Amino acid sequence: MADTAKVIPEGKVPENANEHCPGPESESAGRAAGCEGCPNQEICSTQAAGPDPDLPIVAERLSNVKHKILVLSGKGGVGKSTFTGQLAFALATDENTQVGVVDIDICGPSLPRIMGCEREQVHPSSNGWSPVYVQDNLAVMSIAFMLPDEESAVIWRGPKKNGMIKQFLKDVNWTDSEEQLDFMLFDTPPGTSDEHLSVVQLLRNSGITGAVIVTTPQEVSIQDVRKEIDFCRKAGVPIIGVVENMSGFVCPGCHNESRIFYPTTGGAKALCEELEIPLLGSIPLDPSIGQACDFGTSFLDTHADSPAAHAYTQIIDKIKTIVKS
């Protein structure tokens, strides 16, 4: 089943394909007699036949975006969206840095709340949809802006979710013709499913700078991160590094640290050493982070002297250094 999760490059027959493979762009891909029993049959049968005609449009729309970073997690609830929001706030502290955030967690959009813009709406313009601006140099796009209220569920199958993600890239006016977006962050849902396949395929022509993978220390999260790493390698997505979130609890009184989620197999540090992936850092638990997310504020601004803020700052500095090298 693991092989069906990969993204098949345009025009390329997978190495493990059957002998009489018709090719991934054939109209009979995944449906021909020669596809029977092939490990790639599921992905070939669900992707559109032939090159996506919208890929050049997406590439043109994003031609002024310098760095595109996916924020991934194997397991839900590890703080991936929290990290995306705080990363965006931190990058935007430089007034000369333009930042865009794309919330592609279609069924669980939480970034508008985390970034303090949940009551805003998307407005059409002559150049496409205008994203919601948290500040002059920080824009956000999410399906949450299009829902009638905060309690409305998005009950969509894969093709409709994929179509919405395409609109976020193809129809949103992220920059004017002479402006540059320095960073575009993608907050993804947990796992390796439709949304992940879609964004990787849609960014095929414009390129992906890399992925930041968020985990917690315990093995139940680490084992799913292994699947996320496997996805990145099969999809050709460079891995910037791994962030271990909720790595411990720092007492606000005595500043001693206690392990809440014990790393029974060594946590992110052991994983990164084994798989030769950069460990960007570890962020301790801090109740103020959750409060900042609930109120839509930057934790790094309101609690700059906390141990968690120092950890965030070091990790973000590493990310900027890696993507700019």
Write a structural description:
It contains eleven helices and eleven strands. The chain has helices at residues 41-46, 55-61, 80-91, 111-114, 158-170, 194-202, 219-235, 267-275, 287-295, 299-302, 307-324, and strands spanning 65-72, 99-103, 123-125, 128-130, 132-135, 138-141, 181-187, 210-215, 239-250, 257-258, 279-285. It starts with 40 loop residues before the first helix and ends with a helix. The model is unreliable at 1-6 (pLDDT under 50). Strands 1, 2, 5, 6, 7, 8, 9, 10 and 11 form a nine-stranded mixed beta sheet that branches. It has a two-stranded antiparallel ribbon with strand order 3-4.
Provide a quick synopsis of the model.
The protein is an alpha/beta fold and 325 residues long. It has helices at residues 41-46, 55-61, 80-91, 111-114, 158-170, 194-202, 219-235, 267-275, 287-295, 299-302, 307-324, and strands at 65-72, 99-103, 123-125, 128-130, 132-135, 138-141, 181-187, 210-215, 239-250, 257-258, 279-285.
Tally of individual helices: 11
Amount of helix? 25-40%
Order of helices and strands: HHEHEHEEEEHEHEHEEHEHHH
Report on the biggest sheet: 9 strands, mixed
Rounded to the nearest angstrom, the radius of gyration is 20 Å
Taken as a percent bin, the fraction of beta residues is 15-25%
Key descriptive features of the protein:
33% helix; two-stranded antiparallel ribbon; globular; alpha/beta
